Amino acid sequence: MNLLTHPHRRYNPLTGEWILVSPQRTQRPWLGQVETPPAETRPPYDPNCYLCPDNARAGGKSNPKYDHTYVFDNDFPALLSSPVENGGGEGVGVMRAESERGICRVVCFSPRHDWTLPDMPRAEVRRVVDVWIEQMREIGARDFIDYVQVFENKGAMMGASNPHPHCQIWATEHIPTEPAKELRALADYHNARGACLLCDYLAQELAAEERIVFQNDHFVVVVPFWAVWPFETLLLARRHIGALTDLRDEERNALADAIKRVTTRYDNLFHIQFPYSMGWHQSPTDGASHPEAHLHAHYYPPLLRSATIRKFIVGYEMLAEPQRDITAESAAVRLREMSETLYRASRL
Ligand code: H2U
Ligand code: ZN
């Protein structure tokens, strides 16, 4: 079977799920519009932005005049940290519920309203990495927190409420569904072979080369073999470490470099501030040792063909199985060919 021309399924060993790939369809005519939206220009400071320094937030609190990064408790948290009266599990028949406590925070990457990660100097991105680590340490140390999820929703298309560069942290009493699925697969692999699934995968990708977008001394970015989203990427630590808190100084710099490079390539693809949801998957903070965990981030961008044409997960994909037309290999070629100089750099 030729994976570049013949419909086939690919297996995601991290989730145990399959995805359908239909490379022969990329030949079909496209009748939809292809347009580039007008360039987005924002002021460095927006008096109406609830994330800009010195501004009031909804709910009465104000931000300080911060110079680099700023972290605050989400004013509209999805989770509450207070102990629950009669907490625990509940169930009647096949209906189950359990109480969930947690902590929700917002992390501003920069005081600059008009910046995004690829606009930021590496030293400023490094500060973001350091803040993630501080937050992981502090929140992960709480007795009732078993998992700290750091994630960024970027762009209105992904439902981000504000273009000011920021991410969120939701930390919970239980390990949430997606990391739990991956950790189970990683633990099964580890128990069966005494090896790390992602270390083995990385070695295979480094040998094959065809899905690698770029690499530096400590991180590798690939379009995973089993990618669902057209330009999905996986950012993998080369060293077998479980969490951001395990990163050494030079690895933190390499991570800032990798983040800047992957987001610059994304923006250069369609000459826009490329939307995505991204997040870190790492060791739970449940007090147990997790030799199976391997630090990585997933980038899930919705765009397919242009700045305005997105992929929808609907129909067959919702009811049966995710499907893609362009192969992971051709997406990797596109991203690999992109310049690492931001298309709008000269305009800043
Ligand atoms: P997005 O990452 O989806 O843009 O969400 C930003 C978060 O900011 C959102 O969870 C919070 C919202 O609850 N927020 C505040 O905590 N204070 C505010 O004044 C507005 C928004
Ligand atoms: Zn702002």
Keyphrases for this structure?
single chain, 348 residues, alpha+beta, HIT family, subunit A, 9-stranded antiparallel sheet, 3-stranded mixed sheet, 6 helices, 14 strands, globular, binds 5,6-dihydrouridine-5'-monophosphate, binds zinc ion
Can you put this structure into words, describing what you see?
This protein is an alpha+beta fold. It has a single domain (44-80, 98-340), classed as 2-Layer Sandwich (HIT family, subunit A), CATH 3.30.428.10. Helices cover 24% and strands 20% of the residues. It is built from 6 helices and 14 strands. The chain has helices spanning 122-140, 177-193, 197-208, 249-270, 316-319, 328-337; strands at 8-12, 17-21, 70-73, 89-92, 95-98, 102-108, 147-154, 166-172, 212-215, 219-222, 233-237, 276-281, 296-300, 323-324. A 9-stranded antiparallel β-sheet has the order 3-6-8-7-12-13-11-10-9, with helices on both faces. It has a 3-stranded mixed β-sheet with strand order 1-2-14, with no helix packed on it. A hairpin with a 3-residue loop joins strand 9 and strand 10. Helix 1 packs across helix 4 (249-270). The mean pLDDT is 94. The structure holds 5,6-dihydrouridine-5'-monophosphate and zinc ion.
